[in-house]
C-alpha cells in the first residue's frame, strides 16, 4: 500500500475567472467543497488549474482561501513546482505549514536537456530548504508539456536519499509502458496515472489511484470505480468513466473541461481561460455537450456548487 493508503482520485481543480481575469475565489472554494463531497481529493494548482498562468501571490492566496474553508486538509495535494527554485520553496513551505497531505512538484520546465544531476539538485534544495519531516513530495512527470522527463534513475536516487519524503509520482506521459514499469520497479511508491481509463490495468499492479483532469466532471464515478469490490461493478464503472474520458481528451483539455462546467454551473466565469489559452466558441461547446448528453452525462444542481 502507498503512503496515501487505499487508492484515491485527486482532481486538478479548474479555476474560474472573473471578467477581468482575476480568480473567482469563492466560486473556486465552493467547487472544491463539492468535489470533496463527491469522494475526490484536491490536486489544486495542477496543469488543468492553469496554475502556471497564476502568480506566486495568487497561488498562495487561493490556497489560503481553501485552507480557511471547512475542507479537510488531508484531502489537499497542491501543485508547488515552479521554474524558479525560490518560488517552489516558498509554495512548498506554505503547503506544509497548511498541513496539506503532500505536494505535487513539476520539475523546472524552461531549460531543456537538463541532467538528472540538475533535477536531483532542484528537488534536494526544495526538500532541504523546507526542512520538515511532514513534507511529502509527489513528482510530476509530464514531458510533453515540460520538455523535462523524470527518469526512473532519478526516482531511484530521490527515494534512496529521501525515502520518507519523496513518496510518489503522477505519470501524465500517456505512455502505459512507462507507468507499468514504474509500478513494477518501485513497489510501495505511490504511482498515480493521469487517466482513469488506465485504472483497469494499473490497479492490479498497485497504483495509488489517479490524478485526473476529467475528475472535474466525474469525481463520483471515478471514486466509485476505485471503491468497487466486485469485477462486475468495476466493469460498469470503468466503462462509464472511460467513455467520458475518451471524448474529452480528444479536445484541448482545459477549455473543454471549463466549457462543460460553465454549462452545468450556469456561470460564464467557468469558461474563461487566461491567455495564451483560448476559450471554446459556442459551437465547440455545443458540439461537446451534445456528445456528453448522448452518454447521459450530468452534473449536480447549480446550488450545490454556486458561491
UniProtKB/TrEMBL annotation:
Any Pfam family the entry gives: DHDPS
Alphabetized UniProt keyword annotations: Lyase
Family indicated by similarity: Belongs to the DapA family.
Enzyme class, UniProt record, top EC level: lyase
Encoding gene, per UniProt annotation: dapA_3
SMART domains, sorted: DHDPS
Name of the protein in its database record: 4-hydroxy-tetrahydrodipicolinate synthase
Keyword Lyase: yes
The EC number(s) this enzyme carries: 4.3.3.7
MF terms (GO), sorted A to Z: 4-hydroxy-tetrahydrodipicolinate synthase activity
Lineage: Bacteria, Pseudomonadati, Pseudomonadota, Betaproteobacteria, Burkholderiales
InterPro entries: Aldolase_TIM, DapA-like
